[in-house]
Amino acid sequence: MSAGFYYGTEVFLNGLMTGVLYSLVALGFVLIFKSSGIFNYAQGVMALFAALTLVGLQDGQVPFAHLINSIFGTQVHHFGWHLPALLAILLTAGVMVVLAILVERYILRHLVNQPDIILFMATIGLAYFMEGFGDLMWGSEIKKLDVGIPQGGNIWIEENTAFLGGDDFYGFYLDSLDIVAAVFAGLLVLSLVLFSQYTKTGRALRAVADDHQAALSVGISLRFIWVVVWSIAGFIALVAGIMWGSKSGVQFSLSLIALKALPVLMLGGFTSIPGAIVGGLIIGVGEKMFEFLIGAPFLGGATENWFAYMLALVFLVFRPQGLFGDKIIERV
Amino acid sequence: MTMAETYQTPDGRTIGGQVMEMKNITLRFGGVKAITDISFDIREGEIRAIIGPNGAGKSSMLNVMNGFYHPQEGEVWFHGKKRGPMKPHQIAKQGIARTFQNIALFSGMSTLDNIMTGRLTHMKTGILKQAMWWGPAEKEETENREVVEKVIDFLEIQSIRKTPVGRLPYGLQKRVELGRALAAEPKLLLLDEPMAGMNVEEKEDMSRFILDVNDEFGTTIALIEHDMGVVMDIADRVVVMDYGKKIGDGSPDEVRNNQDVIDAYLGVAHD
User: Fold this and answer.
1) How many helices (H) and strands (E) are present in chain A, helices listed first?
2) Cα distance between residue A82 and residue A270, in whole Å
3) Is B117 in contact with A220 (Cβ distance < 8 A)?
4) Of B165, B183, B201, which one is at a domain's C-terminal end?
5) Is the ipTM value over 0.90, yes or no?
6) Which of B61, B116, B160, B225 is deepest in the core (most CB within 10 A)?
């Protein structure tokens, strides 16, 4: 085999790992969409908010420090402690649950049976509110997130695969962070699937996704399920926030990962969990391979910026319901 | 009739006191009256039918009974207590299960999972324990699974346990929906046109299951039909509705000979 083949494989593997993260973000959308018919525009901002909160808690930042200082003329910034990463993550997960409860209590509850576009608009409002609120709470400067995940090229893999491709090949270059991210995303997806298949709340979750009336008739509280679903979406946002935040710092652009989930959803279908997973992998691998094989040699590169959206467009034309989405059958 | 009164059916079953009593129910949608001042009761162990032509307000009545609709006037009494404003899922927890006219199953889920959802009101472990598949949660799953298997045996649907219900033929879907309601071991079972859209053979099967449920588990059943024939064979007492009003109430024989009922079904002769 030529070294080119192995570089191709390396690109493929990197694509897969990016793809898992795309899947994860898309999954947050799918869960909420299935259970409540809401396209949650705020999913990306939730990731940003989770990451901000995590950094804030870890560093012992005083929340609303700027506000407090300007009102009371004080100079508080830090509590002076430093929380262990695991504890901070658990606390942040708790914050995401509280957020879910607030969203249900103050938004969803009042918008039951409203048209989809109204619900969508509500999530846009929520997104901008959370963005501003996050800034107010933790400050708007770019923060470094470090929860102890190793970063940089994984030497072990590089050394142990170098023999494959002869003299021109130095082994697969895979970022440790990507590997950890992929493993965690995979575990999260797996545990979500198990939870929804084998527990009563999971069953209730699927029931609500299928039929609200029937779900009510067997004693399922829609409000409770919405809180559960938004909490899970919050955990997903947290994991996505940790991974992306560790890579490129916690800043506003983190919320834009939601945009990358859109083509994944078009590919996988808005209502399909396997669709979100497979769609994410296809987009992740597709954009990297396209750049490697066609983009860089022939098109001047930077195709990763638009490839996913073009692919989604093609898909929309030929298969609007996505790979696994519910069939759209309109009866006349 | 008072609460304690009981009566004997022609086939020798003793029907007990009131399970549910509807008192002067009036339901409006904007200016349209769907139900006007209707009262009737449902007694322990009986099969109570509500019949009437299309648009008579039967389904609205069922929706009032399980809390999907809240009547503007009137009271619903359940097991001797007046029911306050409750959500449908809370009413389900009180022991009222139902089926729907246009089957409302969880179409992506298997027969087994659909019927398992019927057990939700009997499962108590918290979400954290479930998430960790903790001892009590596992035990609870197993116990409830046993009840579900009994229901599956009873309805003779073992062969489709793992089939996603969306793929089942209509008659079987109706049966699975009945199974989901039965799994809740309800104190009152509401059936919304259980035989609608079925062929003769399927109707006979369904009638048999309804009678067997009542017979074997002593379940109190209220069912809606617009097809008089089947209902008259299985019901102990029948309420007849037309244009949102009650026009008859009594045993099938009494109702069959009621002139208002005959007029409603056959139309009034104009000559």
Assistant:
1) 14, 0
2) 40
3) yes
4) B183
5) no
6) B61
